[in-house]
Amino acid sequence: MPAEKILIVDDDKNIVELIKLYLEKENYRTAEAYDGKEAVLKFRSEKPALVILDLMLPEMNGNQVCREITKNDNVPIIMLTAKGEIIDKMIGFELGADDYIVKPFDPRELVARVKAVLKRTVVVNAANDRIMECDNLKINMTNYELKISGKPIEMPPKELELLYYLASNPNRV
Q: How far, in Å, CA of 25 to CA of 64, rounded?
């Protein structure tokens, strides 16, 4: 199975190269964008598993990019920016960011956070069977089956549908 693809969006080419180096060392594939408009286009064409997104970008700022991405997709986003005020973080989380890291940053910590976010992320079966896995939870909506740590759990259909919906939309109210 090929490693997940990560889209790195930052106007500083040195930061992009540094992140790319650390991610590829951990066997992630990467795609890069250097402005907001390019980020949205790359997101649509590359279909990454996660986006690392700077806020201060030319053409279209990171908040606008985040809003555009989360409008139709549930891909996890890690904000990586020099803007460290509480209000900036709150706006990022409200727009759909899953994590927020302030520059300067340790690339090893970034990689650890990428792994943690991807571990929590919903995985939908490629056959579109409405199977989703999240940590030890596996929900199969085709067969209305729930397994926790591999053990089948009985659950009424409506409760299973609600659990599937909630698990498919992590960190959302």
A: 30
